[in-house]
Model the fold of this input.
Amino acid sequence: MKLIRFFWIAPLLGFLTLAQARNLNLADGDQPINIQANAMTLDNTNRKSTFEGNVRMTQGSIKITASRIELTQDTQAMATIRAWGRPVTFQGRSAQTNKLVQGWSDQVEYKETEGSIVLTGNARLISEGDEIRAQTIRYFRTTGQYKADGARTDIPVFVTIQPRNRDN
Done:
């Protein structure tokens, strides 16, 4: 009898796991951070880890690739991630629309507590065909807001907005 109950529960647990996997982007901050690199240095005293060489970081739907990543955790184990490369790549799903957002820049800073991503240096961000290019782009995943700045350089902010279906 116990064996029969297990076979009934196992498919249910599998279904629940699949349903949860579809909503990972809504709770990326609740997912573990996974990092793969050629080398790592750990400083437990300062709660800082440095990863170098072909670095790949994932947390739920968020993916960052870079030459170097520094991860710092606060006392509540919330992470700030700084990444450098030429380029650093970023992708994640919007918490609002579940649409893919992709970005490239010389440096990326991801603050888990704020759900913000700052792309600096030759920054480019694409979402649903819309594109922003600027020296600095700030993207707030939780609100879907973007801020672009090119004022400190001779590079202006450039935006392409695709037409939307007006019937929706």
